[in-house]
């Protein structure tokens, strides 16, 4: 008997208000609503979240590992892009 | 959601019903009905742990089972206080025999396939949610407190089981056939959820709980709309209702559940770990 697998979903959870949703893992589910339910059951059993996003893994377009050089290496030698050349007055405090 | 290990409620609120001697026999019976249905269904659902058809369902069902066992600790804990004979939730769960169990027959029926398990859960959840919602307004503060905790979980159980009924009912030919068969198989057991006897009348008269028959309209509305969305035919009134669970007349299945569930405490009385 052929066994149809449910599609794969990526799960993102916001740990608390004000923080970003973070990727926590993936799971199988028949549709988006069930994916939310499954994510609740699998990833928030210990009250880890206040919000869940799910997205079909197929719908994610990822950069290719083989393009790593052209994509990321050029940024390496451009230290002036880091905002480390400003004097911050003491009164400003922690930024 | 997991529970604290003991389920005991610290600093219980003042509740005159807990020490009302005249009401105690009926109140105790009723609390055992609440606790035992949650316990037996929780145990049944836990039987899927490690065997469910998908990892996600396995975890979801284990969560549901844990929720129900958590409810049991609260209901049977309060039952022990009302009875006032030194029995706690564990003593009631592990050291009573089938004739003293007060669960609905629906809860002890075998898991069958996922169709039966999900349909049984849905039929139970729809009534459980309606009941707990009413109980949050109970005149007994302790009952209202337990219901307020439990209803959040029951609300999620109902959402989950409704969604699964819709997906399996309106799914493949095979899943629809199994869901319709499950519905037919379980239907004779639903009426027991709405039959009132002297125990129900006593706690209803005291304002502790609704009369079970008052829940039927709300339950029917939920079931009718979910089954319609699931493309399943709602059976007509059951010609013969299977009843008796709440007064201790059980199917042959309960004994096997208790044999497994109670073995450790029976063989090694007082064992702890």
Automatic annotation (TrEMBL), chain A:
<dbReference type="Pfam" id="PF06243">
    <property type="entry name" value="PaaB"/>
</dbReference>
<protein>
    <submittedName>
        <fullName>Ring-1,2-phenylacetyl-CoA epoxidase subunit PaaB</fullName>
    </submittedName>
</protein>
<dbReference type="InterPro" id="IPR009359">
    <property type="entry name" value="PaaB"/>
</dbReference>
<dbReference type="InterPro" id="IPR038693">
    <property type="entry name" value="PaaB_sf"/>
</dbReference>
Automatic annotation (TrEMBL), chain B:
<dbReference type="GO" id="GO:0010124">
    <property type="term" value="P:phenylacetate catabolic process"/>
</dbReference>
<dbReference type="InterPro" id="IPR007814">
    <property type="entry name" value="PaaA_PaaC"/>
</dbReference>
<dbReference type="GO" id="GO:0005829">
    <property type="term" value="C:cytosol"/>
</dbReference>
<dbReference type="InterPro" id="IPR011882">
    <property type="entry name" value="PaaC"/>
</dbReference>
<dbReference type="Pfam" id="PF05138">
    <property type="entry name" value="PaaA_PaaC"/>
</dbReference>
<protein>
    <submittedName>
        <fullName>Ring-1,2-phenylacetyl-CoA epoxidase subunit PaaC</fullName>
    </submittedName>
</protein>
<dbReference type="InterPro" id="IPR009078">
    <property type="entry name" value="Ferritin-like_SF"/>
</dbReference>
<dbReference type="InterPro" id="IPR052703">
    <property type="entry name" value="Aromatic_CoA_ox/epox"/>
</dbReference>
<dbReference type="InterPro" id="IPR012347">
    <property type="entry name" value="Ferritin-like"/>
</dbReference>
């Amino acid at each position: 008997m052929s066994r149809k697998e449910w599609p794969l979903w990526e799960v993102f959870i916001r740990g608390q208000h004000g923080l970003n949703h973070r990727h926590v893992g993936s799971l199988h589910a028949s549709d988006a609503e069930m994916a939310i339910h499954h994510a609740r059951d699998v990833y928030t059993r210990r009250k880890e979240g206040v919000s869940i996003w799910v997205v079909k893994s197929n719908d994610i377009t990822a950069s290719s590992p083989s393009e790593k050089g052209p994509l990321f290496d050029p940024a390496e030698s451009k230290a002036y892009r880091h905002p480390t050349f400003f004097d911050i007055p003491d009164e400003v405090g922690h930024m | 959601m997991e529970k604290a290990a003991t389920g005991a409620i610290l600093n219980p609120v003042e509740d005159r019903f807990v020490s009302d001697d005249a009401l105690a026999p009926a109140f105790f019976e009723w609390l055992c009905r609440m606790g035992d249905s949650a316990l037996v269904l929780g145990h049944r659902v836990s039987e899927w742990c490690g065997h469910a058809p998908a990892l996600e369902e396995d975890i979801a069902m284990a969560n549901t089972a844990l929720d129900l066992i958590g409810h049991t600790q609260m209901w049977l804990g309060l039952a022990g206080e009302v009875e006032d004979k030194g029995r706690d939730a564990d003593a009631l769960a592990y050291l009573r025999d089938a004739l003293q169990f007060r669960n609905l027959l629906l809860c002890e029926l075998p898991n069958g396939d996922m169709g039966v398990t999900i349909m049984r859960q849905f039929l139970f959840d729809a009534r459980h949610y309606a009941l707990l919602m009413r109980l949050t307004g109970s005149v007994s503060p302790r009952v209202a407190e337990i219901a307020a905790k439990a209803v959040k979980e029951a609300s999620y159980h109902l959402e989950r089981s409704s969604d699964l009924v819709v997906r399996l009912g309106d799914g493949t030919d095979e899943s629809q056939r199994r869901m319709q068969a499950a519905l037919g198989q379980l239907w004779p057991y639903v009426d027991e959820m709405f039959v009132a006897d002297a125990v129900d009348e006593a706690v209803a008269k005291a304002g502790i709980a609704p009369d079970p028959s008052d829940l039927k309209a709300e339950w029917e509305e939920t079931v009718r709309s979910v089954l319609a969305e699931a493309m399943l035919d709602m059976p007509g009134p059951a010609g013969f209702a299977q009843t008796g669970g709440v007064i201790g007349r059980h199917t042959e299945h309960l004994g096997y559940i208790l044999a497994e569930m109670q073995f450790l405490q029976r063989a090694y009385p007082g064992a702890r770990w």
